[in-house]
Amino acid sequence: MESLQHYQQYLPAWPQGAPTHIHMVQTVWVAVLLTVVRFIADKTLLPLIRKLLYRSGGEVSAAKAEQCWDNIYIVIWSLGTEVMAVYVTLHLNGGCTPWSTGTCLSGWPNHPLHEAQRWYMILMFQFYLHEMLGSFSGTGMHLKPDMQIHHIATMGLILSAYSMNLSRFGIMWQTLFDSSNPLLHCAKAMNAASLPCLDTPKWAIFALFALAFFVCRVAVAPFSIIWPGMTRSLEVLPASWAYFLIALMFIVCGMQWLWFYRIIKLLQGKDNEEGTNKPVKTVKSTKTQ
Asked: What angle do CA 91, 123, 206 make, to 5 degrees?
């Protein structure tokens, strides 16, 4: 099998050299910085959020306040990176979009890499890494086993796509899948606040999330992600590389079906309990990144 370095020699020159996994190592400071920022924010903003909830008549327990802040933090990050991802996909991604995947792999390995593409891939990799580090060190949100598997597989895909100069496909994929994240974590933050005035809005936002999740991660994925991933990758990439990426692709995409099943169960539980005048369940176990 041809080595990665063999293909990298054909990549266009750019200020930082050909994309390589070394860039992810060199920018680990981003994950460390995010972890430090999160630690400081937890110590300064979390007490303020708890006081605000108390004054508003909401849940005042430390656990609920922490859940609320966890999700506010992710909303802020996911909104910022999704805006960046949409801009890069529409203007700097070589025409590779969810509705037009022809250029995502065509012409590989000679895909010019824009600095914005490079930094988006780095930021997303380091964000997942900082969440893993934070979960193990007790800073930030604790990741459950399924999310740890998701993060490891996603980091593997990001690292592989970047190192193999497949950032076009990776960025398009992330843009599509991450579009529903702000809605989910907004609903979860409102749920954790436990304010009666937010009960109806949180379920409305969660329903919008469920719709966005279905469209972007379930309905569109076979056309925009799975089909080109299984066909074009085998035509363009060395077979061992293609099969490795396909395996990671099925892990990540398969988890979307599991999560969508959980989403449906949550919504069905809400409707059933409303119909019998029982207390409505809270938005809780669904978590995607």
From this structure: 80
